[in-house]
Design brief:
The structure is a homodimer of 566-residue chains. In chain A, strand 12 and strand 13 form a beta hairpin. With 566 residues, the first copy, chain A, is of the alpha/beta class. Chain A folds into 2 domains: 293 residues, Aldehyde Dehydrogenase, Chain A, domain 1 (3-Layer(aba) Sandwich); 197 residues, Aldehyde Dehydrogenase, Chain A, domain 2 (3-Layer(aba) Sandwich). Chain A is built from 19 helices and 19 strands. In chain A, the strands form 5 sheets. Chain A has a 7-stranded mixed sheet with strand order 14-15-16-11-10-17-18. Chain A starts with 7 loop residues before the first helix and ends with a strand. Chains A and B meet through strand 3, strand 4, helix 18, strand 18 and helix 19 of A and strand 3, strand 4, helix 18, strand 16 and helix 19 of B. Strand 19 of chain A pairs parallel with strand 16 of chain B. Chains A, B: It comes from Kitasatospora paracochleata. Chains A, B: Keywords: NAD, Oxidoreductase. Chains A, B: This is Phenylacetic acid degradation protein paaN.
């Protein structure tokens, strides 16, 4: 592991990004709002949106080559825009053996470069991604179905925030030990024992990042950058339906690595057809020491059980619950929930699925509301939010894939229970081929076994359950049990009663899920802000890790000590 | 998880131990020498040794009851002093179900107490253990075979140091996030979004600490205290031959917990006969979320493969190597190595096993020494060190168990190869029944397949190999390969050549083992100092974790966030 040939760009990058890194390090301690990546599309120049569109259009129908990466010559394609446009991008395929060999060979110089150089290179990669946020927004929109505004924010600056947050955590963790320390142990009247000790961070090996269909960048960047910043080589394996955003990411990472004098094969792309098994093949390779995965519980559990040689970080399925006890802002609550359920057609891992409503009613500033009234008012709020097709399309985005559409269809057919609100087909003014559905709101009774079976399984997509429960106490217990048994990424509660609030907090601490209380304004239970909010906890079955904490980065490297007498 | 009933002792303990905690937190950053627990036996009072002996004697032949812990009424015994004295201590047995139920029930109050209270309680436990270091020394001596001086230091203050180090890491990790933070996000001309966010540490569940035969406290305390300090309940499962030191530990922990108003069943003891399978039964219980294990590779691998529900920290077997290239202090090198090989009869996981000596000879301040000369001189140094039985016994201690004795016998019979130094039976002046053997030094040739088979397997105990290698370069490569394939807890090197030193460092960084260079005085490759040296790296097959770093503590708890508008 000889020191890398010094490249003048590395020193320049360290200098260029020092302030951003310092501010990120301060932000993860203070947890106040901060970002270096503006979330307003207009911040990216007057022609930013048009330039991004043009760059995206130029990719359509092309072969997305990755210079210098091994390939067997085959091409893979298969992405399908939920907006109905033809993408036609194809990607070079590579064999697992060749990819692993390239990743392993690329690592020594990067491992020797040290935490500061690696952080700076990662920030440069993120900076270049940020500058192309409009292009990424198009790529995210047409692979995930997110509406443009959301694809821009969640797929662009917010994803970059999560990447930067991971770099900051990784950097902080790597510099907790001094590079060199003097140790002097008194020996009574004899001379003290004295040593010089050097501590060097060493990477674990090759990391595998397995991307998801809905948030390829937002859910992909934490693991990708945490592994890269700690000296590992990273193999990016996108979901077959959401390759482009990560292919662009890999290309930019390789470009920066090359310029900075490192081997671009530190970051490689593994693409396969839908239904392929390369992820499973790669996951059990002895060289693969870290796996970051977002997706189904089935494959997540398989990875945890089978990739024993690797540190496995998973985010899987869960059932998110909101308890409605009481509120001093009934309209605000309804509006907030309507938006939370509608945003990206309920296709966020953080979208509430079950709204628990006591049969005894919900106390509000407009008087006590019965279960039926709350359900009707919520249905009305959703209808109001999504009444206009253009506005509905901007909130809902499009249905990401046929599996989700099937659940919307099943809900419409009454398969999950009586409908309080039927899904509606929305026409996109811009994309006639888009598949857009409003959420279904299903009525359920916590005390009916069939209903429980329906609402206690994850029903990913635009289907929510308004669950009648005996009392607030029963609702809190059902929340606790749901989180423990099914897992959850989020929990919400509405109450003006201190005792109920305490019970909700206690249940969430006990079951291990983060709680949003009384959201009635512009913050939604499904959204978390990097540098401030944790995404997931790692304490319930929905995920075994959180974005981002010490545990997410600390095992991605080890420290080797060299000691000698001083 | 309601707040625990405030107990006045908790506030007092926080106050009492604050300075020690602060100094420990500073020490793990500076890595300079520090300890609050004096390692000189005389620091513990004029009658300390006699009092410890009396306390130990009072335990002999007794039933070691643990008040308030579940038991099925059966008693377990089976410890055998390597010094030949009759111990006759028996311990109450308990069923796994009952133990787990008690541990689970005990946790809520402890989980709610918070990091500061937990750290203070842990420091009080360590403080009381420290005050009884002479008693622990007897218990460690007569279960592990360590000589009294070593049993006192390594089993007492040094083990306590490692426990305190783990508490400090655990505390630091738990307070990285603020308890509460304000988050204010500008919204252009509109009012900013504003939230208050609370971050609460929650434990993972029940931790299982599986102790080893040779260092029950030193290897046991890091995991025990790391898990306890992060809010978990801890089940201590000692090695059947080394129960007493951990039984004493559990009793003291329970005493402090009770006084501080916590449920003593937060720390329970699981004892079984040798050959029992309770560790395996407990390890796969769903409630067990952390396992700390020191012992054989076989069971360590089994745990890693089967205890999927738990975070598993293992320290297993390894083959430690020292490369002898050149030295400016030949006598110092020989003396240092002779002591390193002899200390506790080579029964440390950190004892060098293979000394790689170039056939081209070792350059020294006394001229170039051939392989044969080095081997003969080293044999002479060992003989010199251990020539006197009383002194030999004080260095060697006793052979810990029949398995180790068997290897000494095998070495004596030439089973591992030609002997440069035959093991010698040493009589203990104090303990006629003690089993004491000097190390065997076996000659081996790196280029002979039979020899390689012998010296590349772990040969735990008083057997070392003087391995002839073609050149220093070949020695460095053999070191690298040995670490990668067999694992190692330590590596050593002697060289005055800068190029060789660089190559040694590069090989150790690459293979993931810490390196001690040119030790010729009072520091030995087998010894690491808490707060300064890492024990293990977690980067090679000998161990998947290190004492102590962020990775050792960060996954023992999770953080739950509660947010609301401020």
């Amino acid at each position: 592991m000889a020191a890398a040939t010094p490249n003048p760009l590395v020193a320049e990058l360290i200098d260029r990004h020092q302030e951003t890194l310092d501010r990120a390090l301060a932000a993860i301690e203070s947890r106040d709002y901060w970002t270096p990546y503006p979330e307003f599309p207009k911040a990216y120049g007057e022609t930013g949106a048009a330039d991004g569109q043009a760059a995206f259009d130029a990719l359509l129908g092309s072969v997305f080559r990755i210079e210098g990466q091994p390939t067997n010559g085959d091409l893979v394609s298969g992405e399908a825009s939920p907006y109905g446009i033809e993408l036609g991008v194809s990607y070079p395929h590579a064999e697992a053996d060749e990819l692993i060999a390239a990743l392993e060979a690329a690592r020594p110089g990067w491992a020797a470069a040290g935490p500061a150089a690696r952080a700076a290179v990662c920030l440069e990669i993120l900076g270049r991604i940020n500058a192309r946020s409009h292009e990424f927004a198009q790529a995210v929109m047409h692979t995930t179905g997110q509406a443009y505004g959301m694809a821009f924010q969640a797929g662009g600056p917010h994803a970059q925030d999560r990447g930067l947050e991971a770099v900051a955590y990784a950097y902080a963790e790597q510099v907790r030990l001094p590079k060199s320390a003097n140790w002097t142990k008194p020996q009574g009247k004899r001379d003290p024992l004295s040593m010089v000790k050097e501590f060097t961070v060493v990477p674990r090996g090759t990391a595998l990042m397995i991307g998801c269909n809905t948030f390829p960048t937002w859910n992909g960047y934490p693991g990708l950058f945490a592994s890269l910043a700690t000296g590992n080589s990273v193999l990016v394996k996108p979901h077959p339906r959401a390759v482009l955003p990560l292919a662009l990411t890999v290309r930019i990472a390789r470009e920066v690595l090359t310029e900075a004098g490192f081997d671009p094969n530190l970051v490689c792309l593994a693409v396969e057809h839908e239904g392929g098994t390369i992820a499973a093949t790669l996951a059990v390779r002895p060289e693969v020491k870290m796996i970051d995965y977002t997706g189904s519980t089935g494959f997540g559990d398989w990875l945890e059980d089978n990739a024993r040689q690797a540190q496995v970080y998973t985010e899987k399925a869960g059932v998110n619950t909101v308890v409605l006890d009481s509120t001093d802002n009934y309209r605000g609550m309804l509006g907030n929930l309507a938006f939370a359920l509608s945003l990206y057609s309920g296709q966020m891992c953080t979208t509430p699925q079950n709204l628990l409503i006591p049969r005894t009613g919900v106390r509000t500033d407009e008087g006590s509301k019965s279960y039926d009234e709350v359900v009707a008012d919520l249905a009305g709020a959703i209808d109001g939010l999504l009444g206009d097709d253009a506005r509905a399309a901007a909130v809902l985005g499009a249905v990401v894939n046929p599996g989700v559409l099937q659940r919307s269809v099943a809900a419409a057919g009454g398969e999950y229970g009586e409908l309080a609100l039927a899904p509606r087909v929305v026409a996109s003014p811009e994309f006639p081929g888009a598949t857009i559905r409003t959420p279904a709101l299903v009525k359920a009774d916590a005390d009916k076994p069939d209903d429980r079976t329906a609402f206690l399984g994850e029903c990913f997509g635009p289907v929510a359950f308004a669950v009648a429960v005996e009392s607030t106490e029963a609702a809190v217990e059902l929340l606790r049990r749901t989180v423990r048994e099914q897992g959850a990424m989020t929990a919400g509660g509405y109450t003006v009663d201190e005792g109920v609030e305490d019970a909700l907090v206690a249940a969430c601490l006990d079951a291990g899920v983060s709680l949003s209380l009384n959201l009635t304004g512009g913050v939604y239970v499904n959204q978390t802000a990097a540098f401030s909010d944790l995404h997931g906890t790692g304490a319930n079955p929905a995920a075994n890790a959180a974005y981002c904490d010490g545990a997410f980065v600390a095992s991605r490297f080890r420290t080797v000590e060299v000691r000698r007498h001083g």
